[in-house]
Amino acid sequence: MNNVGEQTLVFDVGSTKNPICEAIENHPKRRNFMACHPIAGTEFSGPKSAIKGLYDGKTNIICEVEKTTFKLQKKAMDLFKKLGMRIRYMDSKSHYKHITYVSHLSHISSFMLGKTVIEKEKDEQDIFDMAGSGFESTVRLAKSSPAMWTPIFKQNRKHVIKSLEEYIQNLTNFKDLLENDNFEEVYNEMENTNRIKEILK
Amino acid sequence: MNNVGEQTLVFDVGSTKNPICEAIENHPKRRNFMACHPIAGTEFSGPKSAIKGLYDGKTNIICEVEKTTFKLQKKAMDLFKKLGMRIRYMDSKSHYKHITYVSHLSHISSFMLGKTVIEKEKDEQDIFDMAGSGFESTVRLAKSSPAMWTPIFKQNRKHVIKSLEEYIQNLTNFKDLLENDNFEEVYNEMENTNRIKEILK
């Protein structure tokens, strides 16, 4: 970063933005840097997992854009526009508040679901034979790379823990409803959450 | 069931098999009945959600097949074969032991993930903009029908509660690892669960 020229744009694409924005806050070349988080990718990693047109139509979250010099903002926008990305501006605190719930928590719920099933099913053929598309979909993120996700959870530790507490609380409440045979509420819990249908069209 | 003829095959396609098998155990026409559970379908319900070739290549679990008269077993196999289904025989107890983990638990983990995110995200546009394919996949089952799933959870209540306890325990352990900054174990937990890649090819 110290050696980049005036016209050089440096941007990252990591899943956490707060730590990098804080680390670089007072850097003399801060205005050459743009903090980005493209919401794109799959559970697979490495060169073999490359996908043509990966960013087309995907959201690119840009944090603290005002701290990047205007000329380099324009350079970045031209690039992202060519890639077909939708731009969303956000401060780095709002970013982790959203992404913790919409991305990081999903990965843990999926990893732990996979763990619970693998622990139970000694015979892997049973899992394969009985896994419908529902299980495959819910457990898909458990195929993700630990090398990528361990640092993400480390950097966003505090907020991931908080989201996990809320998730565990909701699961515990649902379990209590089952234990109390309160199936009217079991029904309502699911019906209320069905709103996700309208949100994720 | 009382009025079916000798040559008539009656089968169900429900997600729980133990209750129906017990209910019909001593029925005079028991040998006309076959307890089936085709592992197929989507999160959508109703006639508009019909899919051509839904059963093609899917697993059909048949419980207590020996209690169905041989002639009608053959009639059923001819039908399922025409539909392109893979047959898996199982007693009704093994069925719920497997399906509780591989299907029912997935639905609850997904519903409660959706609930946790919706509660947090007051602005639904934020969810939509920031939801990657990962979140969409993990929360997909939260679109499922409460009218279909409430009775399933009611009939399989005991085992669903047990699987939920194990799932909540695994999530709590993972949270503890984060709280104790034990990121080596956080890594190992994820790496061990990556085995799901080999199981669900």
Automatic annotation (TrEMBL), chains A, B:
It holds the Pfam family PDH_N. Residues 1-201 form the Prephenate/arogenate dehydrogenase domain. InterPro entries: 6-PGluconate_DH-like_C_sf, NAD(P)-bd_dom_sf, PDH_C, PDH_N, Preph/Arog_dehydrog, Prephen_DH. Keywords: Oxidoreductase. It comes from the Bacteria. PANTHER family: PREPHENATE DEHYDROGENASE, PREPHENATE DEHYDROGENASE [NADP(+)]. This is Prephenate/arogenate dehydrogenase domain-containing protein.
